[in-house]
Design brief:
By secondary structure, this protein is α+β, with helices and mostly antiparallel strands. It has one domain: Nuclear Transport Factor 2, Chain: A (Roll). The chain is 32% helix and 20% strand. The protein contains five helices and six strands. Strands 1, 2, 3, 4, 5 and 6 form a six-stranded antiparallel β-sheet that branches. A hairpin with a 5-residue loop joins β4 and β5. The protein starts with a helix and ends in a 5-residue tail after the last strand. Keywords: Membrane, Transmembrane, Transmembrane helix. It comes from Microbacterium deminutum. This is Secreted protein.
Length: 244
């Protein structure tokens, strides 16, 4: 049978053993926590959105004086200072029409709006007289003659012109400004006619045509349009080539 003294000694050793065990457990847990490599949490890309000025934009469409004329079978006059672009459009306009969408007189009146006076003349009256003479020359020597227009109209005809070829340039005599140029190129005319049964047929003809344009100071904008002084305008059309 154990004595009270031996019982107290056993209790003390039991308490000491429990304390030692507790310390050992704490040390193991602390060591485990200190040795663990932290895992990086996933991050979300927070790069800023581009503002409106940085966002890509489509180039604006080519500006024209009056887009509605396309519905009448005509070429819309571009608003530009680019002589190549303007000359190609001007030469195409002088041979593009639909006899079912307008009369010849209406089409020619529209072409008149492409003109500007020749700045080589000293007075306003001289410039106006010369411009009217150039418009008359267009009617008599450049565009499709009236008899041919009427023949085409009897067959519900139309013509489209392509002047996308290389342009040959000629200097304008006595032009001290350097703003006027004469451009010449081949123009492919596509004639489309309908027979009595309504069946269409087409054929091509190639012609050599020239136009003198003013792209700079002195050009007069078309009335009630977004054209500005200095934008390209027609001074004169020539039938055939002016190349040497």
């Amino acid at each position: 049978m154990a004595t009270p003294r031996s019982s107290r000694r056993g209790l003390v050793w039991a308490i000491i053993g429990a304390a030692v065990l507790l310390v050992a457990i704490i040390a193991i847990v602390a060591s485990s926590m200190l040795g663990k490599t932290p895992v990086a949490s996933p991050t979300v890309n927070q790069s800023p959105r581009p503002n409106a000025s940085q966002a890509p934009t489509d180039p604006p469409p080519e500006s024209v004086v009056d887009e509605s004329v396309i519905q009448r079978g005509w070429i819309a006059e571009p608003i530009t200072k680019d002589s190549d672009l303007y000359i190609q459009a001007a030469l195409a306009a002088a041979s593009t029409f639909d006899t079912q969408q307008s009369t010849r007189a209406e089409w020619l009146s529209y072409l008149d709006t492409w003109f500007t006076p020749d700045t080589r003349y000293a007075t306003e009256q001289e410039r106006e007289d010369d411009m009217r003479a150039s418009q008359l020359e267009l009617r008599q020597g450049v565009v499709l003659p009236e008899a041919d227009w009427n023949s085409l109209a009897n067959e519900n005809g139309r013509v489209t012109a392509d002047a996308a070829g290389e342009i040959a340039y000629t200097d304008v005599p006595e032009d001290s400004s350097g703003n006027m140029r004469i451009g010449t190129t081949d123009v492919v005319l596509t004639f489309t006619r309908s027979d009595s049964g309504g069946k269409e047929s087409s054929y091509d003809e190639k012609v050599r045509v020239s136009v003198q344009v003013l792209c700079g100071d002195g050009s007069v904008p078309a009335p009630n349009s977004d054209q500005q002084p200095g934008d390209c305008k027609v001074v004169r059309y020539f039938s055939g080539s002016l190349e040497p």
